[in-house]
Design a protein that fits this description.
By secondary structure, this protein is an alpha/beta fold. The protein contains nine helices and ten strands. The chain has helices spanning about 55-60, 85-90, 110-120, 125-140, 155-165, 185-200, 210-220, 255, 260-265; strands at about 10-20, 25-35, 40-45, 70-75, 75, 95-100, 170-175, 205-210, 220-225, 230-235. A six-stranded mixed beta sheet has the order 6-7-8-3-9-10, sandwiched between helices. A four-stranded antiparallel beta sheet has the order 2-1-4-5. Helix 6 links the parallel strand 7 (about 170-175) and strand 8 (about 205-210).
């Protein structure tokens, strides 16, 4: 990771737009967003379906290209990099945590976590297996190394996914609805684990969620989006937040909702394979 003494923003977004075309209709999933993320922040991005939050995460993670605007990562432009350079960015700078886990079904937990290390090619196979074992032990799955996803509970699968996201020691974690498929108790455990990665290890975390409780209670900063725009960018209210203080904007227009499938359509690469049955 970049050293904590680096005072540059980790991420800077200037005038970011993302358009999707449906026949003769153009939908602006992101409509001119300007955001700066400091190193070590824990930022929650909230909004209804079609608000542009997942499109924003895809752009930040290098899974999709914006239609317009500029993104700086550690002061260097992200847009315009070669395909190899973008793959390197996804492998080494960003760790992804997805709602549907996106584990490779025929691989064991150990093999799933070691996969990004094999693709990066920076360490030997034996060293990769050692690091994967350490990461799985760290998330409490040291006794489940040889289990395949079908043999794990939802919470255990997400812990494997978290371990995998840390394989190449990224400085940025992007979590897209990481508790969406979990029960409430397991969701709290998962969020506590992500909070630990932020507070203890100093990871920069961007959490996309429709769950305002999670954003207010776990994040330090909350960005509210609607119709592809930032409505509010403020400090999180903390565990004592009052739901009546803020209300989300009304549901977006039907055309904006149509952008939701496109938001999730970014093809996952570099060892983060789609889950079975997913595009």
């Amino acid at each position: 990771m970049t050293t904590a003494t680096d005072t540059r923003p980790l991420l800077e977004l200037v005038g970011i737009e993302k358009n999707y075309t449906f026949g003769d209709t153009i939908v602006r999933a992101i409509a001119g967003v300007d955001i700066s993320i400091k190193r070590g922040e824990f930022v929650g991005v909230i909004g209804r379906s079609g608000s542009g939050k997942s499109s924003l995460l895809n752009v930040l993670g290098g899974l999709d290209q914006p239609s317009k605007g500029e993104i700086l990562v550690n002061g260097r432009p992200l847009i315009g990099r070669s395909s190899d350079a973008m793959a390197e960015y996804r492998r080494t700078t960003v760790g992804f945590i997805f709602q549907s886990f996106n584990l490779v079904s025929h691989l064991t937990a150990l093999e799933n976590v070691a996969l990004p290390l094999r693709l990066a090619g920076t360490i030997s196979r034996s060293e990769g297996r050692k690091r994967a074992t350490e990461l799985l032990t760290k998330v409490g799955l040291g006794e489940r190394l040889t289990h395949k996803p079908s043999e794990l509970s939802g919470g255990e699968r997400q812990r494997v996914a978290i371990a995998r996201s840390l394989a190449n020691d990224p400085e940025l974690l992007l979590a897209d609805e990481p508790t969406g498929n979990l029960d409430s108790k397991t969701a709290e455990e998962t969020m506590a684990m992500i909070k630990h990665l932020h507070e203890v290890e100093g990871r920069t975390v961007i959490l996309v969620t429709h769950d305002r409780h999670q954003a207010e209670c776990y994040c330090k900063r909350v960005i509210e989006m609607a119709d592809g725009k930032v409505l509010r960018d403020r400090d999180a209210m903390g565990p004592d937040w009052n739901e009546a203080v803020f209300e989300l904007e009304p549901d977006p227009e039907p055309a904006a909702k149509e952008a939701a499938p496109a938001e999730a359509a970014g093809e996952v690469e570099d060892g983060v394979a789609p889950a079975d049955g997913e595009a």
